[in-house]
Amino acid sequence: MSKKEKYQQIVTDILKEIGGKENIIQATHCMTRLRLNLKDMGIPNDENVKEIPGVLGVMRAGGQYQIIIGQTVNDVYDVFTDVASLSKQPTVEELNEEDIRKDKGIKGVFNSVLNKISGSLTPLIPLLVASAMFKMFIAILGTGMLNVIQPADDLYKALTIVGDAGFYFLPVVIGYTAAKQFNTSPIMGMLLGAIMLDPNYVNIVTAGKPFSVYGIPVSLTNYGSTIVPILLSVWIMSYIYRFLNKYIPASLRTIFSPTLTMIIMLPLVFCVLGPLGGFLGDYICNAILSFGKLGGIATIIGVAIVGALWEFLVITGMHLVMISAMMLIFSQGGYDNFVTLGAVAASLAVAGMSLGAALRLKDKQEKSLALSFVVASLIGGVTEPALYGVAIRYKRPFIGMMIGGFCGGLYAALTHITAYVMVPVANFLALTAYVGGNSSNLINGIISGVIAFVVAAIATYILGVKPKGVE
Known about the structure:
Blueprint: H1 3-17, E1 24-29, E2 33-38, H2 46-50, E3 57-61, E4 64-68, H3 73-83, H4 97-102, H5 105-121, H6 125-141, H7 154-168, H8 170-181, H9 186-197, H10 199-207, E5 212-213, E6 216-217, H11 228-247, H12 250-294, H13 296-316, H14 319-333, H15 339-360, H16 364-378, H17 384-394, H18 396-414, H19 439-463
Antiparallel strand pairs: 1-2, 2-4, 3-4, 5-6
């Protein structure tokens, strides 16, 4: 059976179960679901619809009958509208305004925020996977493992360029994806990201020269590879840009809307929104580091907390503060028995989470993608693809990952292991940080990593990847 015939069969079976095209008012779709407004919501039998080959689950939300199809929903939707003689509608968000109004309060706001973040980061998966693979090539072929290529070799430099570019220019790419989520101009969003990475500004930051915008002092921050500053900036820009478009005459809008938007956003980006992530990061990281100074049970719990929260810090860019603390600790004492223990456990928990998700997912494409994340993190040492492609996208695996990181960090602290080397990778080689002490130190270090990996995989599998009825 060809793909087209398969989609036609799915559509035929769906129409039969929902009362035919006569029962349909309107059909839209989002990233994974066929969303139907039906005249009589009592006709469909959810269990029968779930049994249709190609259907992953059913949800009733926001007055819609939502049929979860997965990554092939675009193809199914095209066939569905043709067969049912319906006009095609624009793609909608996973969580629309009607859903939010129905689910009010803290939970509704929290889900809305998560979905906006997920919608902004999920499209980055191809970019992150490609960049991660190039970093993996460097890790395998470079001096850390096979020693086939050296940093001075052209091939090493070429691989590094591709691997670094994908992450460094995240603000520009997220400027585009976030703008689509916040219903504003993608080009203006990209411009905000480009402003953050402008070489002139980077040179000012590197030199540490005083800089101001309209007389307002700027907190010099390097925004390369960051996420939170551009997300906040595009969010605020969406309101400003819409406001200006509403009140500026159409004949002048093309020139004045983008120009005035940038005039307003410039001080907001450099003086408020950009530094905000770093400001919050300092307080969060310092609070975590304070556990390490207390000793006893507080330090043990502190290491476990670092293991649980480390990847959250990575997502927000706050981990750079912790890394600075690690560098200071190593430079002063020559070893670390706090931050590194949790960070290493957390890194291996990412791979475990990806494996657990891969074992639970039913869609072949999603399963294959999750397995590629295992390789990217465990060998390539790049956790972002798994974080954005699994943890944030499906939400539940994030909890499984945190449990794994917590348990791995807890074991490391309980056995009083020490890191003697600051290993700048997040793959399995991070366990070599425990080389330098006695053999039991290395053995327990490896065990802590295995615990983080296995517990994260099991926890993710048990918790599930999607809500009940979707998997």
